[in-house]
Amino acid sequence: MSALAALLPLLALDRLPRTGWLLAGIPAPESVAAHSLGTALVALALGPRVRPALDVEHAVALAVVHDVPEALLTDLPRRAAALLPAGAKAEAERRAAEELLRPLAPEALALFHELAARETRAARFVRLCDQLHLGLRWLGYLREGARGLAEFRPGLAALACDEFAPCRELRDEILAAAGELERPRA
Amino acid sequence: MSALAALLPLLALDRLPRTGWLLAGIPAPESVAAHSLGTALVALALGPRVRPALDVEHAVALAVVHDVPEALLTDLPRRAAALLPAGAKAEAERRAAEELLRPLAPEALALFHELAARETRAARFVRLCDQLHLGLRWLGYLREGARGLAEFRPGLAALACDEFAPCRELRDEILAAAGELERPRA
Amino acid sequence: MSALAALLPLLALDRLPRTGWLLAGIPAPESVAAHSLGTALVALALGPRVRPALDVEHAVALAVVHDVPEALLTDLPRRAAALLPAGAKAEAERRAAEELLRPLAPEALALFHELAARETRAARFVRLCDQLHLGLRWLGYLREGARGLAEFRPGLAALACDEFAPCRELRDEILAAAGELERPRA
Amino acid sequence: MSALAALLPLLALDRLPRTGWLLAGIPAPESVAAHSLGTALVALALGPRVRPALDVEHAVALAVVHDVPEALLTDLPRRAAALLPAGAKAEAERRAAEELLRPLAPEALALFHELAARETRAARFVRLCDQLHLGLRWLGYLREGARGLAEFRPGLAALACDEFAPCRELRDEILAAAGELERPRA
Amino acid sequence: MSALAALLPLLALDRLPRTGWLLAGIPAPESVAAHSLGTALVALALGPRVRPALDVEHAVALAVVHDVPEALLTDLPRRAAALLPAGAKAEAERRAAEELLRPLAPEALALFHELAARETRAARFVRLCDQLHLGLRWLGYLREGARGLAEFRPGLAALACDEFAPCRELRDEILAAAGELERPRA
Amino acid sequence: MSALAALLPLLALDRLPRTGWLLAGIPAPESVAAHSLGTALVALALGPRVRPALDVEHAVALAVVHDVPEALLTDLPRRAAALLPAGAKAEAERRAAEELLRPLAPEALALFHELAARETRAARFVRLCDQLHLGLRWLGYLREGARGLAEFRPGLAALACDEFAPCRELRDEILAAAGELERPRA
After folding, report:
1. For chain E, give me the number of helices (H) and strands (E)?
2. In this predicted model, what pLDDT tens digit does every residue of E59-104 receive, in sequence order?
3. CB distance A77–B80 less than 8 Å?
4. Phi, psi of E181, deg, nearest 5
5. CB count in 10 Å sphere of residue E174
6. What is the Cα–Cα distance from D27 to D12, expressed in whole angstroms?
C-alpha cells in the first residue's frame, strides 16, 4: 500500500477526543493524537532516569504507536469497555493495529505487539507513561478549575509503579499537587 | 433509584458527538442527543402518513430512547463495530440500556427492547427514521459545503424502506437533492 | 409540502445553543435539540410516577416539539424576552410553530398548541419537565466547576410543582445536590 | 453606576455568535463583538474616501456601539425578527441600549440614538458599513469553502449605497469576487 | 489598493484567539477582534470621566486599530515575546501595521503610530484601556469558575494608572472584585 | 527540576492550534501536539523505506521534540516570522528549547539541537516529515471541502526531497491526489 493510503486514516487521531474528559465535562479535551504525543514526552522525560537503563528512543516509538488503533476503534472509556465481552476491546485493538499499522510499516506493527504483550521493560514502562500522561492532564484540568474529576484519582493512586522509580515519583508528585488544590470533593 | 441519579448520566448524550461525522471531518457535528431529537421529529413527520396507521406518539417515544445506551457506550462508528465480535455491540447496547433505562423507568427499558427486537411495525419504522435522520444531516452538511461524504450514500440508497412508503419517499427526496449538488465526487 | 422541505429547517435545532448558558460563560453549552431530548427523558422518567396516571408517551411527544419554534426564533434568554412587548415572544413562538409544525404534521402543531394552552395535565407536566431539565443541566455544570450560575437557582426554587409530586421531588433533589457543592457564592 | 458594573455585561458580546452564520452552518462564526470591530474597520477604511468629508472617528465610534444592545437581546436573525410585531425589535434595541449604554457613558447612548435615527450622514454611512462587513464575512466564508450562503447575496446586491460611492464600490467588489468563485448555486 | 484587498486580511482578527487565555486553559477564549472591541468600549466608558477632557472618539479610534498588526503577527503572549530580541516584537508590529493599515487608510496608520509613540494623553489612556479590558476579561473568567489565572494579577496591580483617575478606579474595582471570589490561590 | 515541573508547561502543546490553518479558515485545526504526533507517524511510515537505512526510532524521537519550543513561542505562521529580524525565530526556538527541554532531559535537548543543525541525515529526513505531514493535513482538509488553501501548494511542490526517495514519492502522491479534487482554484 502506498504511504499516502496508509497515512490518511491516521488523520482521525487529530479529531477524536479523549472521551473520558468529554464525559467528565471538559469542554474541549485534547485529542487522542495530543495524548500520544504527551505520552511520548513523558517517556522522554522519565526514560533517561530509569535504572537499569532503557532504550529511551525505543520507548518513545512505542508511545507514538500506542493509541493508533483508536483511529478505527475511537477512544472507548472505561465504562464502555466494561460492557464488552472480556478481551473484546484488546482484540479489537489488535485487529485495528493490524489494519492500520501493517500498511504503515512492519516496524510499527511490531512496536504495537510489543506494547500489548507487556513482556519487555520498555513496554511496561510506556504503559505507565500512558497513565501518567492522563494524570498530568487531570492535574492540568484541576488547576484550570475543573471539578468532578475525582473518579480519575483512584486509578492513578493504584498504578503499579514499583518497577520504575521515576514513574512512581511522578505519580506521587501529581497526587500531591492535586491534593493541594482547593477541591477535595467531586 | 432516585430520578436524579437516573437522569444525571444521560447528560452525557449532550456531549458525545456523532462520531461518523467527526471522522469525516465535520468540525462541530451534532450530539447524540440532537440526533435522537431529530429522529423523533422524523417519526413525527412521517408517522401520520404511514398506512395502516401507527401509534405516532409511541414511535416518538421509541425514537427518544433509541440511543440512550450511547451515554455509556459512546457512538461507535461502523468501522469500530466491525472490529468487535459478532453481536458484541448489540449486547453492549442491551447492557447499557439495562443499566441506564431500568432506573429511569421500566417503561423506558421496555421501549428499548421493543426497538431492539424489531418485531413491531413501530420499531421497524423508528429504525428507519434513525437512518433517515442521518440522511437528512448528510444532506445538510453537503449543502453547507462539506465534501468527502460519499461513504454515507450507499447505506441510504440501500435502506429497506418498502414497508413504509413515506420513508421511501423521504429517502428518495434526500438522494435526489444530494445528487443535484455540485459535488458528485468524494 | 414534502417531508424533506418540512424537516430541513429543523436541523437548526442542532446548531442553536441554549443561550442562557452561553451568556453565563459555559464554553460549549448544549444545543436546543439536546435540551429537548433531555426534557423528553425527564418526562419519561417522571411520567410513570405521576398520580393520577398520565399518558407518558403523549407527554414525551409534547416535550419533543416544545422548542421547535426556536429553529426560527432562536433561544431568547429571559433578559431578551423582557425587552419585548408583553406577549410578543409567545406570539412569535405561535407563528414559528405554525410555520414549522404545520408542514411537518398537523399532529405536531396540535401538540404545540396543547402545550401553549396549559390546559391539560400533560401540558403542565411537560412545562415543568422543561424547567427541571434546565435544573439538571445547571447541576451538571456546577459539578464540572462552573461558577456564577446563582441566577438560575431562584427560578428552580420557585417552580410551582405541587400538581406533580415527582416533579417536586426531583426539583428538591437538584437543589439539595447543588447546595452540597463547594461554591455557595456566585 | 461604577464603570465595572457597566462594563461587565458587555463581555457577553464576545460570546454571542452572529446567528445568521450559525444557522447557515458555519461551524464557528465570529462573535457579535468581532463583527462590531470589523464594522469599525470598514468605517475606517471607507470613511476617508467619502465626499463630502465625514468625521471618520465619529463614524468609528458609532460602529463600536451599534450592536451593544445584543448583549441583552442577542443577535436575532432576519427570520426571527419577522415573527415579532412591527417595530418590536427596534424598540427592544432601544430599551437594551438605554439599559446598557446609559450607565456606560451618556456619550455612548447618544451615539446609539444617532445611529437609530438615521438622520446624519455618519449614521447612514455606518449602517452601510455594518452590511458591508457582513458582505466581507460572506465572501470570506465562501472563499473558505462554505456553500449554501446564497440567501445573503440579495440583501447585499440591494443595498442602497448611492449616497456613499466608496460603499457602492466595495459592495460591487464583493459581489464580483463572490461571483468568480466556483459555487454559483446554493 | 482596493478597499476589499485591504479589508480581507483583517478577517483574521476574528479567528485569532487571545493566546494568553488559551495557554491558561480557557476553552474558548475571545478573539483578538473581540478584545479590540472591548478595549474601545472601555475607552468609551472611561474617556468621558477623564480630566482634563480627552477626545473620546479619537481614543476609541486608537483602540480599534491597536491590535490590527496581530492579523499578521498573531497574539504573542508575554513568554513568547520574551524569547525575541529586544524591540523585535515592537518592530514587527510596526511592519505589520505598515503592511495592513497603510492600504486601509493613511489615517489608520497614523492612529497606530500615535499609539506606539505614547506621546499623547489619548495614546497613554488607550494603552491603559487595553490592559483594563484584559483585567475585565480576567475577572469574567474567574467569576465563571476558571482557576490558575493568578499570573494575570500582578500586571494589573502594577499598572501605572496615575495619569487617569478613572483607569485607576476601574483597576481597583477589578482587583477588589477578584479578591472577593473564593479562589485566592492559583 | 522535578519531572512534573518540566512536563506541565508542555500541556500547552495540546491547546495551541496550528495557526496557518486557523488563518486559512479551518474551523477547528489540529493542535501543535497532534501535528508532532503526525510527523512522528510519517517518520515511522517512511523511515524504514529510506536507503541507506536510517535509525527510525531516532527519527521518531526527533519528530516528537521538533515543535516543543512552540509551547512557549506558539506556532508562528510564515507571514509572522517574516516580520521578525533574520534568525530571530530560530534563535527564539533555540531559547525556548533550552528552557523547556533541558529540564525535561538532556537527551531531549540534544535531539532538538541535532534537528536544528540539519547535519545528520535523520535531522534532514525529519524536517521533511514535518512538511509532509502539513501536506497530508492539507490534502485532508481539501478532501473535506475546504477551499482557499492554494497558498500551501507551492511550498509542498518545492520541497527538496531528493535525498530521500520515499519523501519525494509521498509528496508526489499528495500533490496528485490534491490535483484530482474538484477545486483547482483558490
Report:
1. 12, 0
2. 999 999 999 999 999 999 999 999 999 999 999 999 999 999 999 9
3. no
4. -70, 160
5. 26
6. 19
Distance CA B97, CA C118 (A): 33
Q: Which three cell numbers stand for residue F92?
A: 527564539
Binned at pLDDT 50, 70 and 90, residue C1 comes out as confident
- A115-125 per-residue burial string, b: 16 or more CB within 10 A, e: under 16: bbeeebbbbbb
C162 DSSP 8-state letter? T
pLDDT reported for residue E125 = 98
Chains linked to E by 3 or more Cβ pairs within 8 Å: A, C, D, F
- Interface check for B162 against chain D (CB to CB < 8 A): the answer is no
CA distance E150 to chain A (A): 11
CA quadruple D76, D81, D82, D83: dihedral sign: positive
Q: Are residues F127 and F163 in contact, defined by beta-carbon separation less than 8 angstroms?
A: no
Buried b (16+ CB within 10 A) or exposed e, B128-142: bbbbbbbbbbbbbbb
Q: Are residues D36 and D67 in contact, defined by beta-carbon separation less than 8 angstroms?
A: yes
Please list the ranges in chain E whose pLDDT falls under 50: 184-186
> Cα(B23)–Cα(B2) distance, rounded to whole angstroms?
37
pLDDT (tens place) for every residue of chain D, 186 residues total = 899 999 999 999 999 999 999 999 999 999 999 999 999 999 999 999 999 999 999 999 999 999 999 999 999 999 999 999 999 999 999 999 999 999 999 999 999 999 999 999 999 999 999 999 999 999 999 999 999 999 999 999 999 999 999 999 999 999 999 999 855 444
| Counts for chain F of helices (H) and strands (E), in that order | 12, 0
Q: Name every chain A residue with its beta carbon within 8 A of the beta carbon of B25.
A: 15
Within 138-157 of B, beta carbons closer than 8 Å to C belong to 139-140
Q: How far from the centroid of its chain's Cα atoms is residue C56's Cα?
A: 17
Cβ-Cβ contacts under 8 Å, A26 against chain C? 144
pLDDT tens readout for residues F150-172 = 999 999 999 999 999 999 999 99
F54: exposed, middle or buried (Cβ count in 10 Å: 0-12, 13-18, 19+): buried
Angle between helices B165-180 and B121-143 (to 10 degrees): 10
Cα dihedral across residues D73, D75, D79, D82: positive or negative: positive
Q: How many CA atoms lie within 13 A of E83 on its CB side?
A: 25
Q: Subunits that touch chain F (at least 3 Cβ pairs < 8 angstroms)?
A: A, B, D, E
Q: Which residues of chain E neighbour A143 with C-beta distances below 8 Å?
A: 25, 147-148, 186
Cell 479529531 found at = A15
Instruction: Please state, in angstroms and as integers, the Cα–Cα distance from residue E76 to each residue in A43, A99, E67, F30, F84, following that order.
Output: 30, 42, 11, 19, 12
- Residue-wise pLDDT tens digits, A10-69: 999 999 999 999 999 999 999 999 999 999 999 999 999 999 999 999 999 999 999 999
Put simply, whether F186 touches D (Cβ < 8 Å) is yes
The three grid cell numbers given for residue C18, joined into one nine-digit string = 441554549
**What is the number of other CB atoms lying within 10 angstroms of the CB of residue D169?**
16
Residue with cell string 497606530: E112
D23 at B interface, C-beta within 8 A: no
User: For residues C32 and A32, is the Cβ–Cβ distance under 8 A?
Assistant: no
Of C97, C84, C95, C7, nearest to D82 by C-alpha is C95
Per-residue confidence band for F1, with pLDDT thresholds at 50, 70 and 90: confident
| Cβ neighbours for B151, distance < 8 A, ≥ 6 positions apart | B24, B186
Could you give the percent of chain D with pLDDT greater than 90?
A: 96
Task: Tell me if D95 and C83 make a contact (CB, 8 A cut-off).
Answer: yes
CA A3 to each of CA A107, F125, F174: distance values in angstroms, whole numbers, following the listed order: 14, 15, 10
